[in-house]
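quick one
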Amino acid sequence: MATFLKKYFPPPELMLMPAIGLDISDSSIKYAEIVHSHKKNVLKQFGKKSLPQNAITQGAITSKFEVEKVLHEIQALTKRDFVRVALPEDQIHLFDLRIPKVSSKEIEQAIFFQIEEHIPIPKNNLVFDYNLIAEEKNVYHIQVHAIMASVVDQYLEVITKAGFAVLSFELGPQAMTRTLFDQNSHNQSVLVDIGAVHTTISVVYDNNVIFASNVGFGGNILTQEIANISGKSTEEAEQLKQKQGLGSDSEYISVLEQHVNQLAMDIVKHQQYCVDHRGFPAGEHQIVLIGGGAYLPGLAEYLGGQLGLSVNRGRFFDGNLQKINFGEDTLEQPLTYVTAIGLALAQFDHD
Ligand SMILES: Nc1ncnc2c1ncn2[C@@H]1O[C@H](COP(=O)(O)OP(=O)(O)OP(=O)(O)O)[C@@H](O)[C@H]1O
Ligand SMILES: [Mg+2]
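structure w/ magnesium ion:
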């Protein structure tokens, strides 16, 4: 039977144990731990380990051995027993439902009975979770996240073998909202997480992720294009990209623009889909760039011009930004840790 995602988690008393956030993607695993010290969020440890190619492909673990090995290294480094993990957007199905007001047990039943109308997978093979989006007089409006139980089992197996116990699984972009936004604020944003090999476009309405999808754009494609044109090594091409980017005197602007124009079209397409089908209000949305690719010089300005919208690099929500003390190790590229930090911040959700 389809079960609630929480069946995987340990009893509530363990939920308070120190834990790290784990952002596992196709190309890397990033981790972060936040602790409370004098009522402040302190970033206690963070780091990134690359994964070999083909260890994870579009969110599915293709080499358990390789993933477990890297997780084991992280366990040895961090000396933590508990983790909060982002599940891969590629494997998650999101939809919303309106159901009559019932008890929380009955909400789970109601989702279970309707799930096959939204996802082309037998309901017995799924696990799910939900967020309450809005409450009307007699109706709950809820957002459901469902995933194949076999995918969760795969993640659980390698994480457990590496010596960790999982405190929570959640959708990566949902974790990002904790790092970027005041959780009590109203917001309408499109988050664009530009990684090495893929970009996740997610639509956030009042801190709920109502849509998330991956597109085949990533920072490495741009590096590869520069290497091909210039005949330089990947390392040199990476340096050229980071220095010149989409600046007006960039030698590679026309080829980079082709890729970024495609990204702009994908952003518009997903945003419009959410306006047409997911109850995302039309109007001014802010586009927020995160991930390493967000540092490409001139990118925010260029996309802003193409889209006619305000496009900015993400900023940590003031409360978090002020309180996170980066300690001795400087976090040079905070936008690559938005998910890992958001997962770690879940530790304090019930404070
Ligand atoms: N200053 C910069 N300018 C342009 N691109 C940059 C800069 N710094 C990093 N990048 C690019 O960011 C990408 C890595 O970003 P990130 O760490 O978010 O990826 P990842 O999470 O490991 O990848 P993925 O999510 O695709 O698996 C690389 O393509 C890198 O070239
Ligand atoms: Mg990433």
